[in-house]
Amino acid sequence: MTAALLGVVRERTPLVHCVTNLVATTLSANVLLAVGASPAMVEDREEAAELAAVAGALVVNTGTMTPERADGMRAAANAALDVGTPWLLDPVGVGPLALRTRVAGELLRLGPAVVRGNASEILALAGHDGGGRGVDATDSVDDAAAAADELARRYGTVVAVSGVVDRLTDGATVRHVRGGHAVMGRMTATGCALGAVTGAFLAAARGTGDDSLTAAVAAHAVVGATGAAAGASAAGPGTFVPAWLDALAATDGRNADALVDGG
Amino acid sequence: MTAALLGVVRERTPLVHCVTNLVATTLSANVLLAVGASPAMVEDREEAAELAAVAGALVVNTGTMTPERADGMRAAANAALDVGTPWLLDPVGVGPLALRTRVAGELLRLGPAVVRGNASEILALAGHDGGGRGVDATDSVDDAAAAADELARRYGTVVAVSGVVDRLTDGATVRHVRGGHAVMGRMTATGCALGAVTGAFLAAARGTGDDSLTAAVAAHAVVGATGAAAGASAAGPGTFVPAWLDALAATDGRNADALVDGG
Amino acid sequence: MTAALLGVVRERTPLVHCVTNLVATTLSANVLLAVGASPAMVEDREEAAELAAVAGALVVNTGTMTPERADGMRAAANAALDVGTPWLLDPVGVGPLALRTRVAGELLRLGPAVVRGNASEILALAGHDGGGRGVDATDSVDDAAAAADELARRYGTVVAVSGVVDRLTDGATVRHVRGGHAVMGRMTATGCALGAVTGAFLAAARGTGDDSLTAAVAAHAVVGATGAAAGASAAGPGTFVPAWLDALAATDGRNADALVDGG
């Protein structure tokens, strides 16, 4: 499953439009290139609308939010909704910070195919009182399970909660994905990069007819498998990122399905 | 030729002012430092005008365009034109995206010494219907040859079209530069970094009396030689960038002229 | 001393809020994670005020200044002053560039615990005619000693001047910190990263009762020791950064005190 969708990414090199944060932009572009997609990081309101309408998928990430970047996000998500481009919402830091919490609440109504975040962000997005601090989760994936199911059903979306074991649901089916490595928590923007890779798989799934949950699970499995391998070979967080990008570029995805439970 | 100009960069450490995109800014600064120049990434309208007037060269890159960044670009290019600072235009994503296409059209009238882009960007800048998709070229360097010659003559500039073999022209003379490595297409902003290095060589050429075509060819040859060496030694795109920066810092440029044809 | 404070950073993972420049943001986040802190890069005016009030420390860096980012800096520094969050001012490029020079002058009045910069920036901040060019120092640490002492006494702050040997003073006591490696001058934003690490130690010192000079000296010593080790093992500037992040994540800080003179 994962290998087949990864093959489609490599064959079609889908254009993945990202409106993302300042910290994540370079790594997100590089993981997309490594996995075989074509990234375009475009945030201006006018350009974002143009690009989202022709992209294979759109990724909107609320880190380093500003009113101007929020305008670009709204324009991109509306354009994606109008023409049917699948898009992912990554609600970085939602909860403790008011501007991005308001903006994420608006964006949620524009039909994201996938919402991906840590447990505290998903709790906050669902209106629960998450314990997030800055951009870090202080809640566990299990703590957010009910909120994730509720969000998925209310908005007709897939909700992916990232943690030691990731939990993904479309409100009916739940899948778990293991993998990754503790060192990924010592490098910034690895979660944002996971969101970007998920965008590439959403784009590929348009050609295969796979649903968004299948695409998101495959993306999480590829990241889990390559992150685990790179984490095991790296001497620390600094050498992890080069090793991870090499692993993403080299993998055929065949070992990734073994990380997926449930279904 | 290349070794001599690289020696001048190292000796004078020219200040290279970049108004560039969010994805390219760190890598561009790092390649400039590796090659021996002093980067300054300044985008505010007021500061950009101050800096462009005292810099050795200016690099303007239209990626991640916003109206505010466009104001900084116009201010910098006008200041450079007024005092004779040579400057390079890198029209990232011009063609499919309207805002940056308009801004690049304005900037082209402000006397860039060099325009560097992929084939689709150069076709679009010349008013032809390029097939660019997002920020990727879908046309070949040969497809853009006539458009490049036309742009060079109309605006009195050097046009460098990047591809498997780069083609540079001032409208009269054509030079080709080989080198580089396929892995460079799997890392973001390597083309932008080539534009930044070209800025360093434009600054050095002010002291030697070399023309802009000579400077641009030398920069492309250094990037081609070091990119080929680093690409051959790297295990993938992740380990490529550290290896490339090391190669740029270590090279004396002597092996680079062998990559240049024509003249 | 250094090992004890580093242990507190690792145990408490303080939230370090950075309003920093586009070139420094990813590396600053990554050095903070490597050292054991929790970075949050938040620049919007509204969000910056919210976050600075709850953060363990705040770092404000004037590189890539814009009027909007200046608003975020003012809001964050005012919020920090109101609730007693210690904060660090890193006056990147102050002197030759007018906007950031004005903004840094305003920020200096909002009670920074530490000001960290190169010699030219400190001279300019004190109103002397520094010889800075772009963001590079053209003055020596000794040239800036009197200006640093004067700033420290006038504003009741610690002033850290970075150079081959760093000089830190609170206006009464002077400490010198050796270490680091020449290759750090060939990678962008290593000085900004030092400022970020100093923020983490300021946050840790809130729990131990150590003063800001002690915290700043410890941060400089950790950066000096890990930078020296990574510089010695790296093949060039490209391989330096991964090696440095690994060294920061691995160090227990015990070898760092040997780099500190004076007291």
TrEMBL record, chains A, B, C:
Positions contributing to ATP binding: R116, S162
Q: Which cofactor does it need?
A: Mg(2+)
Record has Manganese as a keyword: no
Q: Is Oxidoreductase among this UniProt entry's keywords?
A: no
The record's listing under Gene3D superfamilies reads:
3.40.1190.20
As its record notes, the protein acts as a catalyst of: 5-(2-hydroxyethyl)-4-methylthiazole + ATP = 4-methyl-5-(2-phosphooxyethyl)-thiazole + ADP + H(+)
Q: What keywords is this UniProt entry annotated with?
A: ATP-binding, Kinase, Magnesium, Metal-binding, Nucleotide-binding, Thiamine biosynthesis, Transferase
Say which enzyme class the record assigns. Answer: transferase
Molecular function GO terms recorded: kinase activity
Stored InterPro entries: Hyethyz_kinase (IPR000417), Ribokinase-like (IPR029056)
- Binding positions (substrate): M41, A189
Known pathway: Cofactor biosynthesis; thiamine diphosphate biosynthesis; 4-methyl-5-(2-phosphoethyl)-thiazole from 5-(2-hydroxyethyl)-4-methylthiazole: step 1/1
Q: What is its EC number?
A: 2.7.1.50
Q: Which family does it belong to?
A: Belongs to the Thz kinase family.
What function does this protein fulfil?
Answer: Catalyzes the phosphorylation of the hydroxyl group of 4-methyl-5-beta-hydroxyethylthiazole (THZ).
What's the protein here called?
Hydroxyethylthiazole kinase
**Lineage summary:** Bacteria, Bacillati, Actinomycetota, Actinomycetes, Pseudonocardiales
Q: Which gene encodes it?
A: thiM
